[in-house]
Design goal:
Elements: E1 2-4, H1 7-19, E2 24-29, H2 35-48, E3 53-58, H3 78-87, E4 92-94, H4 129-132, H5 136-151, E5 155-159, H6 163-175, E6 181-185, H7 205-210, H8 213-227, E7 230-231, H9 232-244, E8 249-257, E9 267-268, E10 273-280, E11 283-290
Parallel strand pairs: 1-4, 2-3, 2-5, 3-4, 5-6
Antiparallel strand pairs: 7-9, 8-10, 10-11
Helix pairs in contact: 5-6, 8-9
The chain binds pantoate.
Pantoate (PAF) binds next to strand 2 and helix 5.
Length: about 290
C-alpha cells in the first residue's frame, strides 16, 4: 500500500494512473476509521474491480469546522488507520501533512498570502447542517473539490449517514462537471442501532447508552408514517417526547424533507426523508433514514 503525504506526489501518482488507463476510486475520510469507512472501501473496490486502485484520503479538514467546534479534539490515529486500510486491501492512502492542502494558511485573517478560493453550493447546503453550522459545507465542498482534482477518481464513495453532505457533493459534481460518479453506501450501525461515527468515541458510558434514542426516533417515525401520512409538526412534537426519555440528549434539529430536493415536507409520507442532530454534552450526533 502506498502512503502519500504531499500534494505533488499525489498529483504525480494520479497522472501515472490516468496515463496507464487505471480506474481509480476515492474514499474521502477524516480518519479514525471504523467499520462504516471500511464498508465504503469495499464499495469502492467493487466499483473499480481488482485491477483498479482504491485510494483513501485521511485529512481532518480545518475549513469545515467553525471556531469553537471540535477540530483540535477530533480523534486522530494515523498508524491505526494505515493498518486498517492495508488489511482492507486499499492501494494508496493520501494523508497530506499539515500545510499541504491550504497553501499560505487556511485562515482569511492570515492576510494576503492565505488560501482564498472556495467552492460554495447555494441551495441544498442552506438547511439542517448548513443552518446549525453555517460555514461547514463551504469547507466540505472546497476540500472535496480539491481532492477530486488531486486524485482524479472516476468514482468517489460517501456514507449515507451524512445524507445532506452526499446531496451537496452530488450537486457540486453535476454543476461543476466533475467527470466522476458519486456513490453512497448505507449507514453502518452498532448492534443497538447507533450509527457508527468517529465522534462516538467522545460519548461517556451513560451518553453512549442513551445515544440509541436517535435510531429509536427514526424507527418510530418510519413506522408511524407507514400507517398514514402525518403532519411534520405532529412528528416533530412526538420526536421531542421520545428524546425527552434520554435526559442527556439535547435536540439540535429534526427535519422531514424530500430526499432529492431537501425541501421540507409539511405533510410527511412514505419515501420522504427524516434527519436529526442531537447533542450529548459537546458531542453532536447526526442520523437519518428514508421513511
Ligand atoms: O465526511 C467526512 O468525513 C468529511 O466531511 C469529508 C467528506 C472527508 C470532507 O472532509
Amino acid at each position: 500500500m502506498q502512503k502519500i503525504h504531499t500534494v505533488l506526489s499525489m498529483e504525480r501518482q494520479a497522472w501515472k494512473w490516468r496515463r496507464a488507463g487505471v480506474r481509480v476510486a476515492l474514499v474521502p475520510t477524516m480518519g479514525y476509521l471504523h467499520q462504516g469507512h471500511l464498508s465504503l472501501v469495499q464499495k469502492a473496490r467493487s466499483s473499480v474491480g481488482p485491477k483498479g486502485r482504491v485510494v483513501v484520503s485521511i485529512y481532518v479538514n480545518p475549513t469545515q469546522f467553525a471556531p469553537g467546534e471540535d477540530l483540535s479534539k477530533y480523534p486522530r490515529d494515523l498508524k491505526r488507520d494505515l493498518a486498517l486500510c492495508r488489511a482492507a486491501g486499499v492501494d494508496a492512502v493520501f494523508a497530506p501533512r499539515d500545510g499541504q492542502m491550504y497553501e499560505g494558511g487556511e485562515s482569511l485573517e492570515t492576510g494576503g498570502q492565505a488560501f482564498s478560493t472556495h467552492v460554495v453550493e447555494h441551495c441544498l447546503s442552506q438547511s439542517m447542517e448548513g443552518k446549525s453550522r453555517p460555514t461547514h459545507f463551504r469547507g466540505v465542498t472546497t476540500v472535496v473539490a480539491k481532492l477530486f482534482h488531486l486524485v482524479q477518481p472516476e468514482v468517489s464513495v460517501f456514507g449515507a449517514k451524512d445524507f445532506q453532505q452526499a446531496a451537496v457533493i452530488r450537486r457540486m459534481v453535476r454543476d461543476l462537471n466533475f467527470p466522476l460518479q458519486v456513490l453512497v453506501a448505507p449507514t453502518f450501525r452498532e448492534k443497538d442501532g447507533l450509527a457508527m461515527s468517529s465522534r462516538n468515541k467522545f460519548l461517556s458510558d451513560s451518553e453512549r447508552a442513551q445515544a440509541v434514542v436517535l435510531f429509536q426516533a427514526l424507527q418510530w417515525a418510519s413506522a408511524c408514517v407507514r400507517q398514514s401520512p402525518r403532519r411534520a409538526s405532529f412528528l416533530k412534537n412526538r420526536v421531542q417526547k421520545i428524546l425527552a426519555q434520554a435526559p442527556l440528549a439535547r435536540l439540535d434539529y429534526v427535519a422531514f424533507f424530500d430526499p432529492l430536493t431537501l425541501v421540507p415536507k409539511p405533510k410527511v409520507a412514505p419515501g420522504d426523508q427524516m434527519a436529526l442532530a442531537v447533542f450529548f454534552g459537546r458531542t453532536r450526533l447526526i442520523d437519518n433514514r428514508r421513511l
